[in-house]
Predict the 3D structure of the following.
Amino acid sequence: MNRNCTRQRFLEAHGDLPPNQIVALIGSHRRLSWPPLCPACGGAASTHIDVAKIFGRRAQHGSSAYYRLIVRMPIPFCWSCAERHQQLVKHVPSVIGSFFRTPAVLSFAGAVAGAAILSSIFLQGENVSPGARLDAFGGIVLLAGLGIFITAREARFLRVPPLTDITSACDFSDSVGYPFGRRRFYAIRNPAFADAFIRANQERLWTDAIRKRDDWISGIVFVVLVVAALIAWFVRK
Ligand SMILES: [Zn+2]
């Protein structure tokens, strides 16, 4: 997904919120300060919900490959909103359940089949040297491990429920700052929480000054790339 498109879609989805409830921050979301308030109702926070979202990104360097990732944030909520969330949240499969529900389980099945073939030839067969048996055993362990790894990696995505009416009170975008580092938008339903959130993360605000600096850098990088391409073209002629 193109980063500008990501930004556009997020801002459009939250177009009903006043501008001061859309907060743009730089840096890692792991270092954010969360105010002790509930973003859904503005009451005092007494617990938190690990809110997870799946984002799709295009691999860099002009390739068309696409990958997915999960971003998690421990967002504070009050007890009653957290309880309401528990009632609303879509049920997701367990670790084992998701493992067998993802299409990636085919890679696990393939690995098991490969391991079974190796085993029947090298482990159960006759006239096989001990060295070959050991190699085959290593291959079987590697195949099984790889199958489990690939499948478990994909199964994680089945265990991320969509946001509820409660957790969407503090929605967040994917990082839109490429290539300048991490910049993320937060859309907050409760004005008091938004206010406290901005104050708590004052030094992480994505200010106009940083935006201008980013624009300057991207302008300079663009010119450098064009000049480099022209030089390469002249040199080749
Ligand atoms: Zn609440």
Summary: The mean pLDDT is 90. The chain is about 45% helix and 15% strand.
